[in-house]
Design goal:
With 232 residues, the chain is α+β, with helices and mostly antiparallel strands. It is built from five helices and eight strands; from the N terminus they run αβββαβαββββαα.
């Protein structure tokens, strides 16, 4: 699976922000695609902070059974700058996607979609580059304000920025901190919330990104210890 759109990654922060504003105009914030396979995406960084690891775990839907796993590692091309996480992580994620044999119908990312200062977080970035429906499911808020949802799983409130609804604050497990769900590309917010809740199996994180988180940490630890990765 290869991106349909490409661009340079070695950009200055100001150039990267300009590109985000430009590409954000391509985001489609509506749609309810038919989903048979979901790709969960997560990234981990080495203790020294110069090598990044990405994992993509493809699961069937609605069974949520793992059907394919891919990973990659690369030297990080950009230092951490708030709001520019995609420029650090996307190159290694794309490399992992290019190894996949199964093409997912939906990309679910541990990160922001349009709940971003320039409405173009990593979930939107990947969605636009691959021209695929995508959802951002972040563990923390990047921008915006909200009221806490009720304590029961399935409850949610809206995330606002300047009077605009940019996401939803979703309680995926009762009495546990919510996650921040936003449109990445080619999905509606209603669909993004519905799919996130449909992918939860008693944990705070939905299965696609939870499994990707487990896999990327396995990859990082194993390569850090041995210099190579043993297959599952």
């Amino acid at each position: 699976m290869k991106p349909v759109l490409t661009h340079k990654w070695d950009l200055s922060p100001s150039e990267a922000m300009k590109l985000q504003r430009l590409l954000s105009k391509k985001v489609i914030a509506e749609g309810e695609p038919e989903v048979k396979f979901i790709a969960g995406v997560d990234v981990s960084v080495s203790r020294g902070g110069d090598i990044g690891y990405a994992a993509v775990v493809v699961v069937s839907f609605p069974e949520l059974e793992v059907v394919e796993v891919s990973s990659s590692s690369l030297k990080i091309p950009m230092p951490y700058v708030p709001g520019l996480l995609s420029f650090r992580e996307s190159p290694m994620i794309i490399k992992a996607f290019e190894k996949l044999k199964i093409e997912p119908d939906l990309i679910m990312v541990d990160g922001q979609g349009i709940a971003h200062p320039r409405r173009f977080g990593i979930a939107s970035h990947l969605g636009v580059l691959f021209d695929k429906p995508s959802i951002g499911v972040a563990k923390t808020r990047l921008v915006g304000g909200y009221e806490d949802p009720e304590i029961d799983a399935g409850s949610f409130t809206f995330l606002y920025d300047g009077g605009e609804v940019i996401g939803a604050v979703v309680r995926t497990r009762s009495k546990v901190k919510p996650v921040f769900v936003s449109v990445g590309h080619k999905v509606s917010l209603e669909f993004a919330v519905k799919m996130t809740l449909s992918c939860c199996r008693g944990y705070r994180l939905p299965e696609p990104t939870r499994l990707a988180h487990i896999e990327v940490n396995r990859v990082r630890i194993q390569i850090g210890k041995t210099g190579k990765l043993k297959p599952l």
